[in-house]
Each structure stands twice: as C-alpha cells, then as structure tokens.
Specification:
alpha+beta
C-alpha cells in the first residue's frame, strides 16, 4: 500500500551525513529515511506511550516503521539555497574533563516548497500506525529544523528522487542516505543501548542543478 505525507519546511534544514566528522559537515538536501523513522519512533514513544511494544524483540509495531519504504517527490518549482556557515560548538577536552569551544563548518538549507514523503507499507494496519504519529512530527534532523505537517495524500505523486543506477544515467545531485537495516530491532536504533547501530546505505539521485554559488552560498533548482 502507498500513501504520502506533505511537510512544509518552516526553518532552515540541516542534517549531516553519518560519515561526516563533527568539525566539518555538509548537509543532506532532504531528511533521510533513517531520520524520518526515528522521528516516528520518537512520537510513538513520547506521545503514544508505545515503548514497551516497540522494544519487544518481535514487535509488530517496530516492523511497521522499519519495513516502510520511503521515497520522495520534490515539486518542480522548488529551490534549495545552501548557506555555508562556521559555528561554535563544544567538544570533549583532550587533556582534562569537560568541554572546550571550537569552530565547525555547517550547512543550513532554505527549502522553498513543501516536500512529499511517500511511504510503501505492508498493509492497512501499518498505514494506520504510521499515520497516527506522522502528523505529530515537527522537526527532522537537528532540533530546530522545523517542519509543519500539511496533509496526507492517498494518491501520491510519482517519486522524482531515485536510487542511483550506474547503467541508467540521470542528471542531478548524488547523495548517500541512511535507512534502518532490514534485520534491525529496537536495540539497534536505541541511543541508550550498547548494541551496534544497524544502518543500510542508499545512494540517491536528486533532480537538482546548481544555478549559482559564491563563497557563502549555493543555490539549486529542480531540473
């Protein structure tokens, strides 16, 4: 079954790749499947009180989230303006306890239009479970990267962000995104667990082209 959720960006967006260092991190253009699923988990636990169900080893509810296939549609009139910034952050001190200040590179992106997040799910029960919490989400990625839920669509748009295929050339920007591993359980994504985090890598082609840049920003539009 397929449905989609429309979200409006209401602040600058920033989500660094899991491969980036803390001191130098470019941002992804879109919330990753991993970040979206973690946002759903957060709402299911904090609002729905579903921690006990989700944390059981054979949790059906956790399976609804993990097994959802996520795709994207970016409206043709969209622009992405990437601001290059140097910010002060805290990092653990090497020679003493506590933290010290240092400077880090970050990118913050202004997304001009709504984004459509498309879900392929196993059945009606999975759809109803996800819909119970998706509309409550108010940020993806870093705290402060706010999004406003707009509506659900029962007849989603055709995705225009595709998995990279070396045999089928498509113009655009190539980025690496994370998703839940197919055999992951709650402990593998729990920040407070000692278990190894299990992620799967997705190489996606975004239909974007650079239309202008300087030392402080780059601007992209949908091809």
């Amino acid at each position: 079954m397929r449905f989609s959720a429309i979200f409006k960006p209401t602040s600058l967006f920033s989500l660094k790749s899991s491969n980036a260092t803390n001191s130098g991190a470019k941002s992804l253009f879109l919330p990753s499947p991993y970040a979206i699923k973690m946002a759903i988990l957060n709402q299911a636990i904090t609002v729905g009180g579903e921690l006990k169900k989700l944390s059981s080893k054979k949790s059906q509810e956790f399976g609804y989230i993990r097994n959802a296939q996520i795709k994207y549609h970016i409206p043709e009139t969209s622009y992405f303006c990437v601001n290059n910034s140097f910010v002060k952050i805290l990092k653990p001190a090497r020679e003493d306890s506590g933290f010290i200040q240092t400077v880090a590179f970050r990118e913050y992106i202004h997304i001009s239009n709504d984004i459509e997040i498309i879900f392929d799910v196993e059945g009606k029960e999975a759809e109803e479970f996800l819909k119970k919490y998706l509309f409550r989400i108010n940020y993806f990625g870093k705290k402060g990267c706010f999004f406003q839920f707009v509506r659900y669509e029962e007849n989603p748009s055709i995705p225009n962000v595709s998995e990279f295929d070396s045999e089928e050339f498509k113009p655009g920007i190539i980025e690496e995104y994370d998703d839940f591993a197919s055999k992951a359980n709650f402990e593998n994504v729990d920040n407070f667990s000692s278990k190894t985090t299990k992620r799967e890598k997705l190489i996606l082609t975004l239909p974007l082209e650079n239309i202008g840049s300087s030392k402080s920003f780059s601007c992209y539009k949908v091809i």
